[in-house]
TrEMBL record:
The protein's name in its UniProt record: Glycoside hydrolase, family 43
Active site residues per record: D68, E251
Domain of life: Bacteria
Site (Important for catalytic activity, responsible for pKa modulation of the active site Glu and correct orientation of both the proton donor and substrate): D196
Source organism per UniProt: Caldicellulosiruptor saccharolyticus (strain ATCC 43494 / DSM 8903 / Tp8T 6331)
Taxonomic lineage: Bacteria, Bacillati, Bacillota, Bacillota incertae sedis, Caldicellulosiruptorales
Keywords tagged on the record: Glycosidase, Hydrolase
């Protein structure tokens, strides 16, 4: 009996050890498999560019004819975009265009904020028209306050600052809307230009209006929460401007607060909306500024070269196998839970008369700067990645602040060894979990001086090659934005 028990005990121990080895092996395999099984976005609806057949059919516009888009997520769960009155190949109907979407990908045309015989040309409030003789309305913004939707709009004429910011309110994001009249107006000769309004809130819930375009720059003024109109006299405080050597080309301000970093972020658009529009950002501890860029330059700095002020995070570009985009700009920002998105228009490179709606994910650097996905949003999420997924061929784009039209792609290869392009190269890359890589570029000939680009990697839809892929976005240690897309 004793021998049988001993044999049984030996057999039991052996089986137990084998079982533990199998379980641990399977767990290890399962863990690696899980790491590599990232979720890629599905194919979005294709957008036919420069489609003349839809010009007179608003229901088919979807992302066509979108300029200066402002976004809000309404209480009914829909995302709404309100935008400037534009129409390719014809005279636009005035009144502020409205679109909506359930997923930020598929957009449908809803109608207009102002519509009917009570409005000049069927869509311009009388007060706005009498002051400006405008034939369409520009650059709206929308926020929820006091249980209502507050929509700010602008009326003016191109190149002038006889301008008018008005307010409309509604209890439903699709209307009906009530025009509440003048908020701020400027006359020809004033230093300020009353267009491009953005209602924003400080960390205590106090509303502010930031506005301005060219001329004297960007201003911010405190808003009375009950009326939605200025709580103080005057034009407010200057928070950003550009030198007149570039015609003071700054507009489209938008301010958000990020509670994680306890910072306010001012987004603005530089240069010409027809050609070299680009988005810059500065940040501040206070909503009224001062706002500084990545390198510490004030957004009001007119002593430095104009292209070196403001951290450029979006500009004209193209990847291989596509003509790309020019003049992206005049953005709004959607904060949806913990997710951030930049909403802007861009023009097709082959015909700049066509403006299109773009939605892109915003990621955040570890030191608190927003960076933008190089691909349009298709439902992707930031995820935990593994180093081996990053190995391969990429197209890299540097958003040089001096690039005035399109930034060009350059092929790079991230080798499994950690080298870039060649095993003999002094350039190398490192992976930092969960989804960061550092690209180290050797710039010194005798001493190894490195320029370092720290980027976040996320899944995305490759719009140029029509397949899922990985992309990266980030900043160099000099504050220059860099993009990448894996192609092999």
């Amino acid at each position: 009996m004793g021998k049988i028990s001993f044999r049984k005990l030996k057999l039991f121990i052996l089986v137990t050890i084998i079982s533990i080895i199998i379980v641990n092996t399977n767990f290890s395999k399962g863990d690696n498999s899980k790491m590599n099984k990232i979720i890629y976005p599905k194919a979005p609806p294709k957008v036919t560019l420069y489609d003349l057949s839809i010009i007179n059919d608003e229901k088919k516009w979807t992302v066509n004819n979108v300029h200066d888009p402002a976004i809000i997520k309404a209480d009914n769960g829909w995302y709404y975009i309100y935008s400037t009155d534009v129409k390719v190949g014809g005279v636009p109907k005035p009144g502020i265009q409205i679109r909506k979407s359930k997923d930020l990908i598929n957009w449908q045309f809803v109608g207009y904020v102002f519509n009917g015989k009570d409005y000049v040309y069927g869509g311009i409030p009388k007060g706005a028209y009498e002051w400006t003789q405008a034939t369409n309305l520009w650059a709206p913004d929308i926020k929820k306050m006091n249980g209502k939707y507050y929509l700010y709009y602008a009326a003016s004429q191109f190149g002038k600052n006889q301008s008018y910011i008005g307010l409309a309110t509604a209890t439903n994001p699709e209307g009906p809307w009530k025009d509440e009249g003048e908020v701020i107006k400027t006359k020809q000769g004033d230093v300020v230009n009353a267009i491009d309004p953005c209602l924003t809130f400080d960390a205590n819930g106090q509303p502010w209006l930031v506005y301005g375009s060219f001329f004297g720059g960007i201003y911010i003024i405190k808003i009375d929460k009950k009326t939605g109109k200025p709580a103080e006299k005057g034009f407010g405080k200057l928070i950003a401007r550009r030198d007149m050597s570039v015609q003071g080309a700054i507009e489209g301000p938008y301010i958000i607060y990020n509670p994680k970093f306890k910072k306010y972020y001012l987004f603005v658009s530089y240069d010409s909306l027809f050609n070299d529009y680009n988005v810059r950002v500065g940040r501040s501890d206070k909503i009224t500024g001062p706002y500084v860029d990545y390198n510490g330059k004030l957004m009001t700095d007119i002593e430095s070269p104009p292209s070196e002020v403001g951290t450029k995070i979006l500009g004209g570009y193209h990847f291989e196998n596509d003509d790309g985009w020019i003049a992206p700009g005049h953005n709004s920002v959607l904060i949806d839970g913990n997710d951030y998105y930049i909403i802007h228009h861009a023009r097709g490179a082959l015909d700049k008369n066509w403006p299109y709606l773009h939605v892109r994910k915003i990621l955040w650097t570890d030191d608190g700067w927003p960076v933008v996905s190089p691909e349009r949003y298709a439902g992707e999420k930031e995820q935990v990645l593994s180093k081996d997924l990053v190995v391969g061929s990429w197209e890299r784009i540097v958003l040089d602040p001096y690039d005035y039209l399109q930034s060009e792609p350059v092929k790079i290869t991230l080798l499994k060894s950690g080298k870039i392009n060649s095993e003999n190269s002094s350039d190398f890359w490192t992976f930092i979990s969960p989804n960061t890589i550092k690209l180290n570029w050797c710039k010194g000939k005798t001493k190894k001086v490195y320029e370092v680009e720290t980027v976040k990697v996320i899944p995305a839809w490759d719009w140029e090659n029509w397949k899922p892929t990985l992309v990266f976005t980030g900043l160099s240690n000099k504050g220059i934005a860099v993009w990448g897309k894996k192609v092999k």
